[in-house]
């Protein structure tokens, strides 16, 4: 009996040990691994932060005026370069002729020379002025000889059919009363006459010139 009891107690002890080991195995299986939790947290902490890209700021236009290297001013004018050049040359030659005369010349011939540059209406005004008896008598009495030169200085006004130039004039005058150089500025208006140009008016530059081309 003693042997049987001993064997029975051993069997019960073994069975109890198996139950305990089984319970420990279930616990270990269901319990989360502390090492795995640490790795997950480390990965989350060391993951690179997402950086949103910001577009570069737009360039600010320069406020300094700079002339382009290919700027063509004639694109913005009502006349071509050749038209404007021809009008300026006419104004210059007319002003030089206006200042070139001498007391011995027939006043009508002087007026005719100026009329070649002018419109019919302005030519008639010039003829009256150049043949005025008082002017002719004064030039003869002082034996005046005048040689004029001229240069276009600025453009005062411009349309497709009209240009007002400011023309500088220098007259070298030799007379009994003395020798001198006389400088003047004129506003000379030239108008289109078909494919050509004609002088429409001439006034002292200081007096102004509105550029009206209506006869």
UniProtKB/TrEMBL annotation:
Keywords: Membrane, Transmembrane, Transmembrane helix
TM helices/strands, residue ranges: 12-30
Extent of Low complexity compositional bias: 43-53
Region of interest (Disordered), residue spans: 33-61
Domain of life (superkingdom): Bacteria
Protein name (record): Uncharacterized protein
Lineage: Bacteria, Bacillati, Actinomycetota, Actinomycetes, Streptosporangiales
